[in-house]
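DATA SHEET
Item: assembly model
Revision: 1
Owner: S.N.
Input lines:
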Amino acid sequence: MTSQSASLVQRVCIYVILLIGALVFIAPFAWMVSTSLKPLNETMSMPPRWLPSEVQWENYPQAIDEMKLFWRYTANTTFLCIITVIGTVLSSSLAAYGFSRIEWHGRDKVFVLVLATMMIPFPVIMVPLYTLFRRLLLR
Amino acid sequence: MTKTEKRNLKVGLCFISPWIAGFVLLTLYPLISSAYLSLTDYSVLSKPVYIGFDNYERLAVDDLFWKSIWNTFYFAALSIPINLVSALFLAVLLNFDMPGKKIFRTIYFLPSLVPMVCLGVLWQWMLNGEIGLINQALAPVCDTLNYLLGTSLKPPNWLVNPAYAKLGLVLASMWGVGNAVVIFLAGLQDVPRSLYEAAELDGCGFWQKTFHVTLPIISPVIYFNGIMSLIGSFQVFAVPYVMTNGGEGPGRSLLFAATYVFNKGFQAWSMGYACAVALILFLIILALTLLATHVFERHVHYAAK
């Protein structure tokens, strides 16, 4: 692991640039949080303000209530996430071992195929996948 | 094949069998099916009807199709170099030894974790003409420029002005360079220190070190990030779709190829036509990737193992 060393002047310059960049990168997050705590009439005020005049923590429970099925959505997402992670880690580690540690005939060509599948835009397989799952689930 | 080779073949195939199953069921079958469907007239309510190359003849004269291709190329031509250069720039900066470098790396990587739908909603706000953060930041810049140069510049209304919609999208995609930065960082840290020291002994300054040591050694990483950027930027769909609430942007300026496929397939229900457009998109990406590989082959130096 190599990190570059630099003179003090260079380091200060780099630090300043990175600091400004970091503030720019964080700004959208900060604005999201600040807007989420504002009363409604302030969210679109001109000129925009960074600090809400009164911090409305009630916005969060209110948002969850308005979504009605929020806990259902969260449960769906969590279920999908767990299954995906387990499935992906299992399958990928097996496949990676098979491609890297075992020498078998035609291994490199199949690996190029694996990489090539990353190039297929989702819209190409989207329509048949939709039909496939529609038929599978309508039974 | 010898016995060991046969056994290795069996064992190897067993190990990748989950991938093979997924590939055949979820990639190969849909790909072939899509190729066949592109030769049919298929609305989901009725069976596909074979019509030969009609779909392709239609899309050759379809103005919207060509507009979507133009928009996609425009966006890719802008976002690929901008993202590559800024990711490399940030990675080089983040590679220096300094206090808080881990915090900086986290901050720059965090935005790439935001889900695409949230990105769409967030940037719909950020690019708003009056109250968006981007224009808030640009307003003083425009004011100073106007004062100094006597011009009458105004921050553009990003999502309403057709000329600026794609630029706004490029800005949004710049926020997500964290992924590429991390990969570049990994590549940069693999550069052997001895090479830098040798260059310093020869009297190289920072720029010479960068051009003659850093860039050649990380050229495989640049190539990888470039190809991933290429593939990704040609498939852009979710963020502009959410940003325009499912529309096509001002003057159809955010109508990308993938958006067109989606609209034709799931709104106009002409799935056969959608498959044809999607296949053309695939061929374009394939051709560009092969071209990029061929052109940059002699610039990419792989480290000897």
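QC remark: The longest helix of chain A spans residues 70-100.
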